[in-house]
Structure formats: C-alpha cells, structure tokens
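Possible race condition, two jobs.
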Amino acid sequence: MNRFIFLNCLAVLGCFWIYMLDMGRIYYFFCAVLYLTIISIGVCNLRSNIFMDCKPQHRLSQKIALTIDDGPDVNFTIPLLCLLKKHGIHATFFLVGKESEKYPDLVKKIAQDGHSIAFHGYSHSPWSNFYLACDWEKEFQKAESILGIYLKKKWFRPPFALISPHLAYVLEKLQYTLVSFHIRALDFGNRRIHRLSERLLKKLSPGGVVMIHGSVQANAYQKEKILAEFDTFFQKIKTSGYEILTLENYLELDSKSLDKSRNVL
C-alpha cells in the first residue's frame, strides 16, 4: 500500500501547489487525468510495478518458462498433462481455489506429474479487482486451506492479470510473490483458436514466461483443436532452440540478471 499512498500524496501535493499558485481549474483537470492514467496503468499492467514489484523483470534470451492459468478442469487437465508429458515439459499451474476444491484428485495428479502449483485466486470473480483487503485475505485463507500442501513457493497471479492497491497490500503482508508473464495466449472464451501456435511463436523472441489457459469453455471439437495447437507450439519451441525451464529456475536466473545490472550501475 505504501506506493499507492505515496502516489496519493503526490496528487494532493500537486493540487495544493495549483491552489497556492492560483493556476486555474484546467490544471486540476490535468492533474486528475495524470493521476487516473497512472492508476489505470498500474491496474492493467502487472509489470509496471506501480503498486508492487512483480517477477520476472527480464525476458531471458532463448529461455522459456511455461505457466498455465485457471483449472483444474475436469475435461481438459488430464489431456493437457498427457501433452506436457509427451514433450517432457514441466510447467507451473496457477490454480483456482474453488475448482481445486471440487477436483482435488486433479490437483494431486498435477503435483504427481512433477509440475509446480501456485495460486490464482479462490473464486476467480470478474469483480475481484474491486475487493477490499479483507476480501482478499479471505480468498487467500480459503485457497491456502485447499492448496497449502502443494504450494512450495508463495507465487500468485491475479485473475484476469489485474491488480489493485488492496491486493498489493495483502500480497506484501502475506509475503507472496506477484508473477507476471511476457507472452499471453489469447486462447480463452471466444478468442480465435485457428493458428494459435503460429501467433504464439511470433511473440516468443527473445524468450520469456508464457501463459496459456488450463481450462476451456469449448465443445469437444474446439478442445481437440486447442490441444493440437498446443502440441504444435510445444514441438516448435524445442526445434527452435529454446530451453524450457521451470518457473523457479527462470526466476532465479532473472534475479541474477537483475543483480548484475545493478552492479554495473
């Protein structure tokens, strides 16, 4: 919350100077627009670091980490796990607490297959970005009671990749790491499935954290099409010379890269 409070203090100070210098109402308008623009960037762009720092900070050359949001999904998780096993890929699943509560066997299967499990909210509500700090604390309490034994690292990715000052406060209080991504697969809802792998590969250079969805709102035909696109994507990652890392290894290398850049400065 400290960064948000600091931003509010700057806004109040700006308005105070406008008043003291009698600069006119138009400057209040400019001040308000600037304030709302900064807040909007902070909410919509996790990597802006406006409310809190997120990881990773860098796109590492020729290195990829695969993360999978949502789920577990009773119709999609098992075939996706089979696909990952086929290509020898270990991913990090950012799971929804409510779905994990319904399908504990799928959560167990994800962990048994050697994948990491992280937290993606309990309810995954479209209104979650309007939650107060007390609401987020309840979400974390519920999720930890379900996923706690699987959370080797306290990683969190917010629903819809949106953050608020209240969420940032709770994450810092509970010592969670905010995890973002560089490459986003628009593979959810009514997004186009056709040539999905091709579009992802175009975004891949120079490397980075990839986010796909592990839950689909689709019929059986669309599900098979998505799996086929993922199959092609995973195969082409390897043939293109990229090294596929676990998220933990990627973040470790990212931290070392950040330390080196600081030492140079």
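Job #2 (started ~2 s after job #1):
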Amino acid sequence: MEVFEKGEKIIQILLGAGFAIKKSKVKGPSREIQFLGVKWQDGWRQIPTEVINKITAMSPPTSKKETQAFLGAIGFWRMHIPEYSQIVSPLYLVTRKKNDFHWGPEQQQAFAQIKQEIAHAVALGPVRTGPDVKNVLYSAAGSHGLSWSLWQKVPGETQGRPLGFWSRSYRGSKANSTPTEKEILAAYEGVQAASEAIGTEAQLLLTP
C-alpha cells in the first residue's frame, strides 16, 4: 500500500510541474522492469533477451559504417563483458580513417567472440552496503591493454557478485611502459572506475 501511495505522490508532483505522463508507460510494483533499454530484475542489471537476439543475429559488417554501427550496438553493454576492449580491438582497426576497410580472419574471430560474450553475459549487481560487505577489485595489465572487475562478497558467499567489468587498450606511449608501470596504471584506473559504482565504500585491490 505504501508503494502505491508514494507512486501516486510522485505522479502528482510530476503533473504539477507540467510533465505529461503516458498511462501506457506507467507500471505498478514489479520484480522486473525495463528502463532506458536495460532490464532490471530483483536489482540485477541484465541485457534484455531481445537485445541479445538482435546482436547475435547480425551479419558480419561489409563497410566501416556497418562496423561502427555494430560497435555502437554492443558498446553500451561493455560493463557486462570481461576484457571487452581487447576482444573488439581488431574491429576498431578497420574503422580508422587511415585504414582501408578489410575484413579478415582476425576481425571475423573478434566478431564471433564478442557475439558469444554478449549471449552469455552475466547479470550485474545489485550494489550492497554495510559492514559485512567486502568490495573486491581485480586489476590486470596484459600485453594488449588494461582490465578490471569489481565484485561484492558477504559472509557465506564464495565467489561473490560481479558489479562490473572495465577494460581499455593502451594509448600512445603507454604501450611501451614497463610491466610494473602498467600494473600501477591498471590499479589506479581500476579504483577510479570502481568508485563510480560504489562511491566511497572501501575496496580490496587484488593484482596478479
């Protein structure tokens, strides 16, 4: 009952402020909702099934423009994909202005792999707070780029829940940094990325 009362108050405030509300868009209390294209179920962030089906049904691009469109379709879900940037880097190569479009075996492999990753992407969250919650950040610096993943664990959980995966390729001279410098960079950027998800909550940083 309290949920309905608060919902009605919010609607009245919005109407009073001059907003128009479509009745077809109003949804009552539910354990599952889709908002701004993202599926939320019991607090978990998921890729909607129709999005997965659309992406996995896509044919290999035949031009730079089609490759850019494909990258745009999958890029929104990159937080669900471990080492996303490293996987799709061959696809970005064919979109560069200085490069002619050439779809080779490397691009085809990356295209097939990222579609598989999207099809089997894990749900993220929900974010939990409290003294018993342990936030564990894993950072790594590989030969092709940096990657991080943030997990939450509470007593009784062995693996924990993933809150997000981040990654990027090396930029400019950073590719020539020493392994130690790359690990430091990965840890620094990992903490920054994780802080966007959990704010000022404490993090346990683990590196290889």
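The helical segments are 2-16, 49-56, 64-75, 84-93, 105-119, 179-198.
Logs attached separately.
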